[in-house]
Write the structure tokens for this entry.
Amino acid sequence: EVVQGIINEMRAVKRREMSETEARECFKAYGINVAQSIPAATSDEAAAAAEKLGCPVVMKIDSPAISHKSDVGGVKVGLKTPDEVARAFLEMTSRVSRLKPNAWVRGVLVQEMVQGGRETIAGVTKDPQFGHLIMFGLGGIYVEVMKDVSFKVAPITREDADQMVKSINAFPLLRGVRGEPPADMAALSDAILSLASLVTDFPEVSEADINPLLVLPRGQGAMAVDARLSLS
Ligand code: ADP
Ligand code: MG
């Protein structure tokens, strides 16, 4: 109902892209762990949000016109005090308004910082012939340079999801190298499965991605810290 409600609102104003916050709500409704975020429109609100979440926190520019936040200096990780958060707010919003003078900026999101996770990506695209394709890979160069990803056509089973995780070339990195603890593979499969059931329930979703989905050591889960979703 959460997802249907957001989709109805979007249809009413002919909007196709969800805000990060709306996308996060949808993923959460399907059982995916999402990092806690608080919107802030002023430096004081940002500092108060950091106080509430507990430092360190991450700050992200909140604007419907900016989908690649890092490209405009719109992500700052590891902010250690509310004071630092207040300063980062002024710095970030003024930099973004300089680089993107026409973009409407709501403010920022102050987000809990997830530490000790490894970056993975889970996503969905829609193929005119096959329908929804579910995608999984490790973040960063593995996806961008090595194109090391696995795909399955939705709907998928838990075995399919397990297999998607195991079949990327970089899988040994998730199992752990040089004494690193193994990643929480079950949590990855859960998130992939949730994503697949979301798009199976809502065929109008044309694209969705969680980039990154930070996976913690076994038993500690996985957490979505950046979410995108659009309708066809
Ligand atoms: P964008 O993709 O729009 O540039 P992201 O929200 O994905 O912005 O943030 C960019 C990077 O910052 C992520 O890939 C991740 O490495 C790091 N990051 C973002 N949010 C968090 C968080 N809550 N905890 C830890 N690291 C984060
Ligand atoms: Mg991202």
Remarks:
- The mean pLDDT is 96.
- Helices lie at 2-12, 20-29, 43-53, 82-99, 141-144, 158-166, 171-175, 185-201.
